[in-house]
Amino acid sequence: MDVHISASRVAGTARAPPSKSYTHRAILAAGYSDGATVYDPLDSADPRATMRAVEGFGGSVDHSEASLEITGFDGTPEVPDNVIDCANSGTTMRLVTAAAALADGITVLTGDDSLRSRPQGPLLEALDALGVEAKSSRHNGQAPLVIEGPLSGGQVDIPGDVSSQYISALLMAGAVSDEGIELNLTTDLKSAPYVDITLEVLEDFGVTAEPVGATGEGGVRSAGAEGFVVAGGQQYSPEGGEYHVPGDFSSMSYLLAAGAIAAADGESVVVEGAYPSAQGDSAIVDILDAMDADIDWDREVGEITVAQSDLTGTTVDVGDTPDLLPTIAVLGAVAEGDTVIENCEHVRYKETDRVSAMATELTKMGVEVTEEHDVLTIHGSESTLSGATVEGYHDHRIIMSLAVAGLVADGTTTVTGGDHVDVSFPTFFDLLADLGGSVDRTE
C-alpha cells in the first residue's frame, strides 16, 4: 500500500497505542508463568509473533477486546511441534531464542527477509558458552536459528553495544533456569532504557534481576552497567495475576512531531496516555523542548500538549534511544540550523539501516544531510521540504516519520509500503487523518 500525504495542518486529541516493548515482554513473562491476564496490550503484527511463540512452547493465548488471557508453560517450554515464525519481529526472535534454550530438544526460529538479515550471533555465542547448542543454519549469525537445550545457567560474556535485547532475553530465561545467569558486558551498554523496561516487567511479575556496577546516570537504572545477574529458580507471578501495558513513547514521538511542525495556528495536538515509565523514548519530550518546541507534559494526568513551533537545531545522542532517530531527523529537517544525531551506529541494525534510509529519503525531499558512520547531521537551514516518492523500506518507523515530514512538504509525498505500520501502530494513518492530515491510500 502506498500512502499519499499532502501539506496540511493538524490539531486535536489523540492516544498513542500501548507500548510494543512492554507488550512483548509482558506476553512472554505471562508465558513463563503458569498464567496471567495482560491488559491493554498492543494488537499488532510484532506482538502477535510473540503470542505464536508462547503457543508454540505449550502455552495458550485467548484474545478479548482489551486483554490477553495467557495460560503459560510455567518456566518449562515444550519443544515446538513446528518452526516458530517470528515474521518481522526482531524482539520476538531474540527474546524467544533464549526461551527456546530452556526446552529439552530442538527449536527452529525463522522470519521474513528483513529479520533473516539481522545479527543474532552474539546471543548464539552466549548460549553456546552456557552449554546450549545454538546455531545459525547458514553459519552467518543470522536466522534461521537452531536451538537445542536445555539451558541450566552460568556465567557468560556478551557485548552490550549490538542489541540490548540479547541481555533482556538472557535475563528473562535465566530467572527460571536452575542456576541463574551472570552476564559480563564486554563493551559499553547501549539502549540501557530498554533493559530497564525488562527489569521493570520482571519486577512486576515477581522476578528479581539486578545490574552490576551501574552508574544510574540520567535516572536510567542500567546506565553504565558492567553486567547483570539474575538468580535461577524464580517464579513468574504478577500481583493479582494481572499486568497493565503502558502507552508507547516511540509511537507518541510521531504525533508530537506532527504537532510541533504542523499544528494549526492557535491550536495544538494533545497526546493522551503519556504516563511516566522506564521508556527511554520519553526523551522525545526533552528533545523537543531543547529544540524550542512549545510543549508541556502533565505527568500526573498523562497528557502532552504541543503546538506548532519555530524549531532550532540541537545535538542528540541516541545511544539509549535508537528508535527516535527517524523522528529527530524529520524535526531537524524543518529546524533552523543543524541537528546532529550522534552515537547512532547501532541504529543501522534495525529493520533496515535507519541511518542510511533517513539520509537517502530526506535527500529526495530536498533536505541537506551529512551521513557518517556514527553521526547523522541534518542541515535544516539549507533545506526546503518538497513532496517526493520515498521508500518506506518495509520499516514502520521510517514510514511514519516520512509521513510526518509530508505534512509540511510542498506538494504531495508518497510513502511506499505504508501497510507496514501494522508492526507497531496499525491505526497511525487513520489517526493522522482524524487530526486533519491529508492522507490518501492506494493499493
From TrEMBL:
Biological role stated in the UniProt entry: Catalyzes the transfer of the enolpyruvyl moiety of phosphoenolpyruvate (PEP) to the 5-hydroxyl of shikimate-3-phosphate (S3P) to produce enolpyruvyl shikimate-3-phosphate and inorganic phosphate.
Gene name in the database record: aroA
Description of how the protein assembles with itself and partners: Monomer.
Enzyme Commission number(s): 2.5.1.19
Chief location bin: cytoplasm
Native organism taxonomy: Archaea, Methanobacteriati, Methanobacteriota, Stenosarchaea group, Halobacteria
GO cellular component, one term: cytoplasm
Reaction catalysed by this enzyme: 3-phosphoshikimate + phosphoenolpyruvate = 5-O-(1-carboxyvinyl)-3-phosphoshikimate + phosphate
Pfam families: EPSP_synthase
Pathway assigned to this chain's UniProt record: Metabolic intermediate biosynthesis; chorismate biosynthesis; chorismate from D-erythrose 4-phosphate and phosphoenolpyruvate: step 6/7
InterPro entries per UniProt: Enolpyruvate_Tfrase_dom, Enolpyruvate_Tfrase_sf, EPSP_synthase, EPSP_synthase_CS, RNA3'P_cycl/enolpyr_Trfase_a/b
Active site, per annotation: D323 (proton acceptor)
Record's keyword terms, sorted: Amino-acid biosynthesis, Aromatic amino acid biosynthesis, Cytoplasm, Transferase
Top class in the EC scheme: transferase
Limits of the Enolpyruvate transferase domain: 8-431
Gene3D superfamilies: Enolpyruvate transferase domain (3.65.10.10)
PROSITE patterns the UniProt entry points to: EPSP_SYNTHASE_1, EPSP_SYNTHASE_2
Organism of provenance: Halohasta litchfieldiae
Protein name: 3-phosphoshikimate 1-carboxyvinyltransferase
